Amino acid sequence: MEQKQYDLLDIVEMRKPHACQTNRWQIIRMGMDIKIKCLNCNHVVTLLRRDFDKKLKRVLVKHASNDITESTD
């Protein structure tokens, strides 16, 4: 099975919509478990990574990485 690619601050769609009838979540923490926040009602849910992988439908918006290199003058 193909490994789904997601990162911190990505906007994702889950298989089932939230009780507030929206299905847009932002990943706000990643580790052994993953914490996601509903973008409509700001409800926060923590899932084990294994459960998150099963419930994830697709990544809607990839977060642009902020690779800022400091220059010394």
From TrEMBL:
InterPro entries assigned to the protein according to its UniProt record, in alphabetical order: DUF951
A Pfam cross-reference name: DUF951
Name the UniProt record assigns to this protein: DUF951 family protein
